Predict the structure.
Amino acid sequence: MRPLVLLGLLPVLCAAPALQIVNPILSQMDGGASDPPNFQHTPGEVIFFSCRISGFTKTPEEKIHVAYSVQPFDPSGVPLAEPYKNEVSDEVTVQDKDWMPRVATEIAIPPLGESGTFKILVKAEDLIAHTTTELSVPFLVKGHSVEPSDQLVVRNFRYFKSENDLQPMDKPVYHAGDTLWAKFDITGYKFGPKNKLDVSYQFSVLSGTGKVLFTQPDPAGDQTESFYPKKYLPAEFSVALQSNVKPGEYGLLITVKDAVGNQTAESKQTFVVQ
C-alpha cells in the first residue's frame, strides 16, 4: 500500500524577498511632493532625492546591515559629483515589519549643465545576505545649448542693448553714447589634471576698414579646476560708445586662447552706429 502524503502538513519553503530600491522621489524641497513626470530642471538647481530599500535580510537577532551609494550623471555618462555613501545598521522587530531604510540626499545640477536626460544611479548592498541591487532614476534638465567642438571655438555670439536683457538684438544697431553688450560661449578647449582649464579672451574694436581702434587692456577668462568638467564657458564684455563716435559700420575681433591645449581662435563680428 502506497503511503498517504498530507501535503497540507508539509512545511512551505518561501524564497527570501529580493533586495530592491523602491519609491524614488525627486522634489524641489526637502520632504516635498514628487515632481510631476517630464518636469524640467534647470542648471544650478538643487534637487532633493530620496528612496527606500526593501527585501533586506535580518540576522537571528533581528539586525540589518545595508550599505548604499547615490551618484548623479549627465547625458554623456559623466558623473556630476563623487558618490554619496552611507550605511544603515539597525534592529528591526516584528512591530517594524513595514519599515524600510530611507535614502535621502541632495543633487546639485552644475550651473553650466547641458540639456538632456540626466540620471541618478543608486546602488545598495545587503551586507548580511551579500546581495546587491541598483536603480537608475532619470530626470530632465533644460540648459543652455552649446554645440560641442573638437577645437577651440566661439559659439552663440549675441549683441544686447543692456547687460540684463534676456533677448539678443535682431540687428546690432547702436547710437553714439550707447553701451554695447556682447555675450558668447567658448568651447573646444582642453582639460588638464583634475579638469583644469586655462582659457582667456580679449577683444578689439575695429573700424570699417579693419583698423584697430581699441583693444581690451587685460584679458578675461577662467583658470580653475573642478570635479565636473565645464563643457563651455560663458563670456561677455561691454563697449561704451563715445558721444562723438562717427556713424558707420564697425567690427569686433575676439581672440581666445587655450593655454592647456595650446590653441588660439578668433571670431569677427560687425555692428552699426547710426
Remarks:
- The domain at 153-273 is CATH 2.60.40.3880 (Immunoglobulin-like).
- The first strand starts at residue 20 and ends at 27.
- The chain has no helices and 17 strands.
